[in-house]
Amino acid sequence: MPRDCCNNGPDAPARRECCAGVCAPTLAALGVLLLALLNGCVTRQPAPPAPRAAPAASLYPARRLGQPYEVVPARSQLVVLAYRAGPLAAMGHDHVIACHCLSGTIDLPQDPLRASFDVRIAVKQLTVDDPRLRAAEHSADFPPDVPQSARRGTRKHMLGPALLDAARFADISLRSRGLRPAPDGKPGDILARVAVRVLGGWHVVTVPMHYAIRTGEIVATGSFPLKQTAIGLTPYGAFGGALRVKDDMQIRIRLVAQRRGG
Q1: Which of 166, 222, 223, 244 qualifies as a FRET site for 102, CA 20 to 30 Å off?
Q2: How far is CA 127 from CA 84, 130, 140, 191, in A?
Q3: CA proximity to 37, closest of 241, 247, 228
Q4: Is the pTM here over 0.70, yes or no?
């Protein structure tokens, strides 16, 4: 179609008819595409250099010592805060991703620094932007009134093949590779070296945690930043990165485990 399809001229009526028949539907289609991209929040950005994979030893649990404790899913929780970025960030929203979907075992020997854990996250149980959890953040970054259609679209993208690929990889695994006291920390503050298995690949990160040992129970908590690329994920973006999700996430985790048979 010539560029002056909709201009005035001697044959303007015919041209306007052409405009009504072709140009308007084309603009409408572009509008629908724009809304679909915004509701889904993201499309894949070019992948950054892959982070270094974990050594082969991370494929196997650390040697188990001591008394086993079973993680209690209903009392344990994972919360991930993901943030928007880019010149068009105002057109998206920040996300609260969460679940009570943690299971597995913590093995506790006499020396807590020799403890080990093997924990799984069931990715299909992850929720996105639950209004109650957003309100619980008490932050203007997380207003509770996110449209349900946007929540569904974001969760569909998150579990789809472009990100977590839940159909092929049902779990994210967390395995201990060593614990040490946190420098200048309080009693119970540690640095945990964790092998994380995402999309079939292993990556090792070090995160701060705090633990408390009670009668028949262990409670371990942590709040820390984590980059998506550090665990092999590719942040999403639309419009050449003008609207995107930041690489940096904020993680909060609470593990409650009860002594097996106790």
Answers
A1: 244
A2: 18, 7, 20, 28
A3: 241
A4: yes
